[in-house]
Specification:
By secondary structure, the protein is of the alpha+beta class. The chain is built from 11 helices and 15 strands. Bound molecules: guanosine-5'-triphosphate.
């Protein structure tokens, strides 16, 4: 008798595990047959050999299903799979066999008697055979693939045959009663007398399921199958709904983001000219003020006012007045293009710019250029008292910010310069000397 962990495997063998179910059940009985023809069940393989074999198998295009290693319930198996190759390992946990001093004991493990029907039809410890009946939802092809026409050593039990009685056929499952025939391993049994033994066994121990029992089982299994189908449907439906909900959530979020962006933009923009509004200017100029204070540079404020704009509105109408303001706003935008320049509509026909222009010359140039740009825009203004086109007046003031000074004071100084420039005749620029 071989040691339990070095048990000898007799005959051919093909084992499929649940996770390889698809590849095996996809084979027809005929395919399984031809595969088994080439199976060579071998003695125990040492693990080092197995490792070598694993490596070799990776290089091989085709190979046959072979039990590479088995110790008790644990096994390692290689098999051919649709032109590819596969290796499996696992254990048989459902039924555990124990060998207690030569006598056979069956221990049912991990069994839910409510779920499956199992019973020992026959057990002869002296002769060493057992017949086990199991009702399951495993399709016969799968079960046959596990035990197909081979002998399988299970503990010290040799599996001999499998008979199937179909109870019910569902869309996904065949509910069946499987009758497993085991015998205690004994070297004296050749393949031939094993077959004789099976014949005897089948004759003497037919699986007897009463019609009532068969009906109860079929009903139970149908219930399980229906529950499974329902769960599957619910899962599919809930994932579909979840998918839709997530898509909707993303859509709403994008929509909200866009809306927020618009609101943010609207809250800082003047709708007529597209320039920043006064509120934004106050915040941004304040930041610039503190930044410039740290760097001890100059900050300059430009106050820009359209001349005789009331007269313009009176002569050309409010809509034309709006258009004129847009053109002037555009000229200002074109004139102050540096990143740190803050250009805003201060209110009405008045605009404000904060820059870091440092020298009087730079300030004069910028203001002069802007006056020229507005002139070049050539917006007719026959009611103006200083030109035939729209003109602007600019007042500027600059300072190196400090804790003692205030931005508002600088704006006031620029506004004062604007006022003085207006007094001096408009269409000009005046820089505050303070
Ligand atoms: N079309 C139009 N007019 C505006 C807008 N905002 C303010 N105004 C007009 O701008 C004019 C400003 O008039 P005033 O403050 O007297 O200034 P002004 O006529 O330009 O005179 P000076 O600045 O002294 O040259 C008013 O008639 C306002 O109605 C606007 O958005 N669109």
């Amino acid at each position: 008798m071989p040691r339990k962990d070095q048990a000898k495997v007799h005959g051919s063998f093909l084992l499929g595990m649940a996770n390889t179910f698809y590849s095996i059940s996809a084979l027809s009985s005929c395919d399984v047959d031809s595969l088994i023809q080439n199976v060579s069940a071998e003695d125990w393989y040492p693990i080092s050999y197995l490792n070598q074999l694993f490596e070799a198998l990776r290089e091989t295009e085709y190979y046959n299903p072979t039990l590479l290693h088995q110790a008790g319930q644990k096994f390692v198996l290689a098999w051919y799979e649709n032109g590819g190759r596969n290796l499996g390992w696992g254990s048989i946990g459902q039924i555990k066999m124990q060998d207690n001093s030569q006598s056979l004991k069956l221990v049912f493990k991990d069994y839910d008697p409510e779920r499956l029907f199992t019973r020992l039809l026959a057990l002869d410890e002296e002769k060493g055979y057992a017949v086990l009946e199991v009702a399951d939802m495993l399709p016969p092809d799968f079960t046959r693939a596990i035990f197909y026409h081979g002998t399988f050593l299970w503990g010290d039990l040799l599996w001999l045959d499998l008979q199937t009685e179909i109870l019910a056929q569902e869309q996904d499952y065949t509910h069946a009663i499987y009758t497993y025939h085991f015998k205690k391993q004994d070297q004296q049994y050749s393949n031939q007398n094993i077959n004789e033994f099976i014949d005897q066994l089948c004759l003497s121990q037919p699986a007897d399921i009463s019609p009532e029992m068969a009906q109860t089982l079929a009903w139970k299994l149908k219930g399980m199958s229906a529950q499974y189908t329902l769960e599957k449907q619910i899962n599919e439906r809930s994932s579909e709904m979840l998918g839709k909900a997530l898509t909707e959530q993303v859509r709403i979020r994008n929509h909200l983001e866009k809306a927020n962006q618009i609101i943010r933009l609207q809250s800082m923009q003047d709708s007529l000219t597209g320039l920043y509004n006064k509120r934004y200017f106050d915040e941004a100029a304040n930041d610039l003020w503190h930044c410039i204070m740290r760097q001890q540079e100059k900050i300059t404020i430009y106050m820009i006012d359209v001349d005789f704009f009331k007269k313009y509105n009176d002569s050309y109408g409010h809509i034309k007045g709006d258009e004129a303001l847009q053109i002037v706003a555009n000229c200002i935008k074109q004139n102050f293009k540096r990143q740190e320049d803050i250009v805003a509509r201060f209110g009405g026909e008045e605009f404000i710019v904060a820059t870091t222009d440092a020298t009087d010359q730079q300030i004069n140039e910028q203001a002069g250029n802007l006056i020229d740009k507005v002139k070049e825009a050539n917006i007719p203004h026959t009611a103006s008292l200083v030109a035939k086109h729209v003109t602007i007046t600019i007042g500027t003031a600059s300072i190196i910010p400090s804790e003692k000074t205030k931005l508002q004071k600088l704006i006031k100084a620029a506004d004062k310069a604007l006022y003085v420039a207006k007094e001096q005749g408009r269409n000009r620029h005046l820089h505050s000397v303070n």
